[in-house]
Amino acid sequence: MRERYEKAQAFLENLAEKSPDLPFEPSLLPDLFASTAEDSIKSMEHIGKLVEQSQGLASRILRLANSAYYGMQTKVSSLGHAVRILGLREVRNIILQLGMSSAVARMPLPKGFPFEKLWEHQLFTASIARGAGKAMPLNTKEISPDDLYAAGLLHDMGKTMLAAYCPGDWIAINDLATCEGIPFHQAEENYWGLDHAVVGARLLTFWGIPVKLTELVSWHHLPHHAKPEYQAPARVLAAANLLAHNVDHMPSLDDFDLPESVTSTLLMGADPEKLQESIAANCNVDRVRSMAKTVMEQ
Predict the structure, then answer these.
(1) Could you tell me the domains of the chain?
(2) Which PANTHER family does the record cross-reference, listed alphabetically (predicted)?
(3) pLDDT (average), residues 164-173
């Protein structure tokens, strides 16, 4: 166990050397989050120039904006048009999706790694988190439902890093989780004292993702360990992650019964009926799957 613990710590310390490059200017993500903050004074023109510097990014944004996921009645013809219709935060989330999928495509993932399934799970988590965030108090003005969506998109990036750069350990942890019937993150802790949430948060820090999101990602399995000001949104992300694991076989969330164990512990303070309605309205199963497929094809 000690040898595995030391290997985990070395992996974490050397993560910056393994961090895959994003397919756009390094300053784009920090500027995007700065521009979508409540007190932002940056203009869309500033972001537009950054997007234009990243070859092919604008056209990929437009392809996603015109996909079945958004169901536009008219064709979105320019980046400015996309922002006017979807909002800058939604365009930011589109860029996040493109960035994450491209980064993972460059990772040396082992044969059999279920990236398509993982990506779909991240999209379901993001959609459920946004829906839940609209229906309950987050106890902070710093994080919006759209920020919860972004955190959902990012929350399992640590799994891909683990599989890509420690494939033998990834297989061993998977086997441990299966044999003992325990969650993957618990198997990670038992195996080498490090879970993918911490790995993912560290990776996102290298990419310039703000603390308000890395904190949620870091504690999406243990939200009570998050900083006090982030515990409410961290609970929402934790709940969304749990619920997203249950939608694989479901055609719709309209009749989905929220488990009492989730509403009473992670989603405290929300009206269960309004919560369920908001989640169903923000997480159309077919549209989420369509978006996952579209992003993977970019």
Answers:
(1) 2-20+109-297 (1.10.3210.10), 23-106 (no CATH)
(2) PTHR33525, RIBONUCLEASE Y (PTHR33525:SF3)
(3) 95
